[in-house]
C-alpha cells in the first residue's frame, strides 16, 4: 500500500494550449502503422472525444485556443505536430508526409496573426512536438522515422536551448510523444521527471534516458500500445487515455503524487493519435 503521507506535493501550473477540432477527421491514407483506411471512422464521436479533452483542460484552469480546421487536412487535429514554442520563440513544422504538408502554413499564420513575432519555419523535416519534448532545461528530440536528425541542430539554433537527440527504433512509436512525456519540468535536467517506454529507443538512447532521468516512470508494452505515453501533465494533473487504468501506468504515476485524469480518445487513435498529439503547448 502506498504511504500517501510520503507523496510529494505536486503543484499544477496553468498552461496555454493550441488545439484544432477534428471536423474533417478521416483516415484516408496510411502514414503510420496505426492507420487503416479500411476501418470506418466516426467523425461525430471523434468530435465528442476531442471536445471532452478540450473541456477538461479548461476545467483544470488552462487556456485553450483553437485553430480553424481545414477541409482536405484530416490530420490537422494533431496540433502538436505543427510547432514548438519555448520562451515565445516559435519553430514551425515541415512534414515528411506530403498529405500533411499544407498544415504547417495554417499554423504559421495563426501564430503571426496572434502576435508572435519570432516565428521560424524549418528547412529540415521537423514534426514539432511530435518529436520535441521540453523538460524545462533540455529539449529532448526524437528521430528515426519522421523528424530528420539535422532538425535537432536547427531547433537548438532557433530556440536557443540545449538539445538531446534520442533515436526511435519501433515503427509503432514513430514520434517521441508516443514513447515519452514530461510529468514535471525542471530547469535542472536530472530534477525533471518523465515517463517513457524503453523498448521504443535504441540501446544508446536508453542509456542516455537512464542517466538523465534516474527517477523516471517506466512504462511497459501494454502502456505504450494504448498510447499511454501520449499524456499531458501540468505538474499535478496528468491526462491519460482511459486504458492506462487497467495497464497499470496510471497507478504508477499516481504513486508519484500526481492526480490522473482519464479521457477516451479511441476514435482519434485510429490515426495514431492520443491526448498529447491533439495538444500543442505555447510557452511564453
Please describe what this structure looks like.
The chain is an alpha/beta fold and 284 residues long. It has a single domain, classed as L-arginine/glycine Amidinotransferase, Chain A. The protein is 22% helix and 19% strand. The protein is built from seven helices and 15 strands. Strands 2-1-15 form a three-stranded mixed beta sheet, with helices on one face. Strand 1, helix 1 and strand 2 (63-66) form a beta-alpha-beta unit. The protein is globular, with a radius of gyration of 17 Å. The model has no long low-confidence stretch (mean pLDDT 96).
How are helices and strands ordered from N to C? EHEEEHEEEHEEEHEHEEHHEE
CATH-defined superfamily: L-arginine/glycine Amidinotransferase, Chain A
Can you identify the CATH class? Answer: Alpha Beta
Side-by-side strand order of the widest sheet:
2-1-15
Distance between the termini: 40 Å
Q: What sort of overall outline do the alpha carbons produce when their principal axes are compared?
A: globular
Radius of gyration: 17 Å
Structural class: alpha/beta
Total number of helices: 7
Helix-residue proportion? 10-25%
CATH topology-level fold name: L-arginine/glycine Amidinotransferase, Chain A
Average pLDDT across residues? 96
Q: Describe the biggest sheet? A: 3 strands, mixed
Number of strands: 15
CATH architecture tag: 5-stranded Propeller
Give the percentage of residues in beta strands: 15-25%
The poorly predicted ranges are: none
Which helices and strands, and how do they pair?
Elements: E1 16-19, H1 43-59, E2 63-66, E3 84-86, E4 89-91, H2 103-113, E5 119-120, E6 132-134, E7 139-143, H3 150-159, E8 163-167, E9 180-184, E10 193-196, H4 203-212, E11 217-218, H5 221-225, E12 232-233, E13 237-241, H6 244-247, H7 249-254, E14 259-263, E15 280-281
Parallel strand pairs: 1-2, 4-5, 7-8, 10-11, 13-14
Antiparallel strand pairs: 1-15, 3-4, 6-7, 9-10, 12-13
Amino acid at each position: 500500500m502506498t504511504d500517501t503521507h510520503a507523496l510529494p506535493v505536486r503543484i499544477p501550473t496553468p498552461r496555454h494550449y493550441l488545439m484544432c477540432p477534428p471536423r474533417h477527421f478521416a483516415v484516408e491514407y496510411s502514414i503510420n502503422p496505426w492507420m487503416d483506411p479500411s476501418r470506418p471512422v466516426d467523425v461525430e464521436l471523434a468530435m465528442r472525444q476531442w471536445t471532452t479533452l478540450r473541456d477538461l483542460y479548461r476545467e483544470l484552469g488552462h487556456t485553450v485556443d483553437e485553430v480553424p480546421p481545414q477541409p482536405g487536412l484530416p490530420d490537422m487535429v494533431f496540433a502538436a505536430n505543427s510547432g514548438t514554442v519555448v520562451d515565445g520563440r516559435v519553430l514551425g513544422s515541415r512534414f515528411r508526409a506530403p498529405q500533411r504538408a499544407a498544415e504547417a502554413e495554417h499554423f504559421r499564420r495563426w501564430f503571426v496573426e496572434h502576435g508572435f513575432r519570432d516565428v521560424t519555419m524549418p528547412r529540415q523535416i521537423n514534426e514539432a512536438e511530435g518529436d520535441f519534448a521540453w523538460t524545462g532545461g533540455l529539449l529532448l528530440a526524437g528521430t528515426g522515422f519522421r523528424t530528420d536528425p539535422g532538425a535537432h541542430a536547427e531547433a537548438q539554433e532557433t530556440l536557443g536551448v540545449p538539445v538531446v537527440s534520442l533515436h526511435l527504433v519501433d515503427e509503432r512509436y514513430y514520434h517521441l510523444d508516443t514513447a515519452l512525456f514530461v510529468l514535471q519540468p525542471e530547469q535542472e535536467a536530472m530534477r525533471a521527471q518523465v515517463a517513457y517506454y524503453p523498448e521504443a529507443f535504441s540501446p544508446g538512447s536508453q542509456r542516455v534516458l537512464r542517466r538523465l532521468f534516474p527517477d523516471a516512470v517506466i512504462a511497459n508494452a501494454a502502456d505504450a500500445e494504448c498510447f499511454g505515453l501520449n499524456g499531458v501533465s501540468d505538474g499535478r494533473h496528468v491526462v491519460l487515455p482511459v486504458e492506462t487504468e487497467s495497464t497499470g501506468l496510471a497507478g504508477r504515476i499516481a504513486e508519484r503524487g500526481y492526480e490522473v485524469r482519464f479521457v477516451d480518445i479511441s476514435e482519434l487513435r485510429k490515426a495514431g493519435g492520443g491526448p498529447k498529439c491533439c495538444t500543442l503547448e505555447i510557452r511564453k
